[in-house]
């Protein structure tokens, strides 16, 4: 079972790497077992990528509970939630382009925060995978948008304050903040994926209606 999971992960990583190398407009070859077809847009709600992200989110909760031997509830991380973090895309009154820009800007902030998380948990698998997929998503979002993404953020100074604050806290507080950053990152991605999926479905229905009237 473990070998099968490893093979699937390797296949997905190789495919994701090819997406980044080829670019958004290049033809893509799907690995065996992955969905394809005109009815499903390649990105951003393509299943292999989001399955991996959601899988890491679930693993993080289990990892947290194992680390603290279930003596601390996962929901307690809400008490260590950082202020002024990237906002998710609203469901309405927000275009897909604007949502992709917001996601790219948000992931830029999380990329910097993950460097601080890595200092708290050097070499930890969850952190490494979160960093890996955040980088993949950020590059794909930047490729998908029509206009260049402005990566200058008013939150940049806040990120620096978080880094300084972490250095002056005790070990328990640093661990809680590190886990909270991971939790907020996954919530940010899950919310973004939900909004983008709804927009793709609306676009798909609109295209079908347009084609029907053309017949």
Describe the structure.
By secondary structure, the chain is mainly alpha-helical. It has one domain (45-214): Growth Hormone, Chain: A (Up-down Bundle), CATH 1.20.1250. 67% of the residues lie in helices and 0% in strands. The protein contains six helices and no strands. It has helices at 2-22, 47-67, 96-120, 125-144, 156-167, 171-214. Helix 2 packs antiparallel against helix 6 (171-214) and helix 3 (96-120) packs parallel to helix 5 (156-167). The protein is globular. Mean pLDDT is 75; it is low at 1-5, 18-42 and 206-215.
Task: Give the tags.
disordered C terminus, Growth Hormone, Chain: A, 215 residues, globular, mainly alpha, 67% helix
Furnish the topology, listing elements before pairings:
Elements: H1 2-22, H2 47-67, H3 96-120, H4 125-144, H5 156-167, H6 171-214
Helix pairs in contact: 1-4, 2-4, 2-6, 3-4, 3-5, 3-6
Structural class: mainly alpha
Order of helices and strands: HHHHHH
Q: Helix proportion of residues, in percent?
A: 55-70%
Poorly predicted parts = 1-5, 18-42, 206-215
The third-level CATH topology is: Growth Hormone, Chain: A
Task: Report the total helices.
Answer: 6
**CA radius of gyration:** 19 Å
Number of domains: 1
Shape field: globular
Write down the CATH class: Mainly Alpha
Mean pLDDT: 75
- CATH architecture, please? Up-down Bundle
How many strands in all? 0
Main sheet makeup: none
- Roughly what fraction of the amino acids lie in strands? under 5%
Give the distance, in angstroms, between the N- and C-terminal Cα atoms: 49 Å
């Amino acid at each position: 079972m473990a070998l099968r999971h490893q093979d699937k992960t390797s296949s997905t990583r190789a495919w994701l790497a090819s997406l980044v190398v080829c670019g958004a407009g290049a033809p893509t070859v799907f690995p065996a077992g992955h969905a394809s077809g005109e009815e499903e847009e390649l990105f951003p709600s393509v299943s292999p990528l989001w399955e991996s992200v959601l899988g890491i989110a679930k693993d993080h909760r289990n990892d947290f509970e194992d680390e603290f031997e279930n003596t601390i509830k996962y929901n307690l991380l809400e008490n260590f939630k950082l202020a002024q973090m990237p906002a998710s895309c609203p469901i309405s009154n927000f275009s897909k382009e604007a949502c992709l820009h917001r996601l790219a800007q948000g992931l830029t902030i999380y990329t910097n925060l993950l460097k601080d998380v890595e200092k708290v948990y050097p070499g930890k698998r969850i952190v490494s995978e979160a960093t890996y997929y955040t980088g993949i998503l950020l590059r794909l979002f930047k490729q998908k948008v029509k206009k260049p993404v402005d990566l200058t953020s008013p939150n940049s100074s806040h990120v620096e304050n978080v880094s300084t604050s972490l250095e002056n806290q005790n070990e328990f507080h640093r661990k809680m903040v590190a886990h909270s950053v991971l939790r907020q990152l996954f919530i940010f991605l899950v919310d973004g994926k939900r909004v983008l999926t709804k927009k793709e479905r609306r676009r798909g229905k609109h295209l079908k209606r347009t084609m029907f009237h053309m017949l």
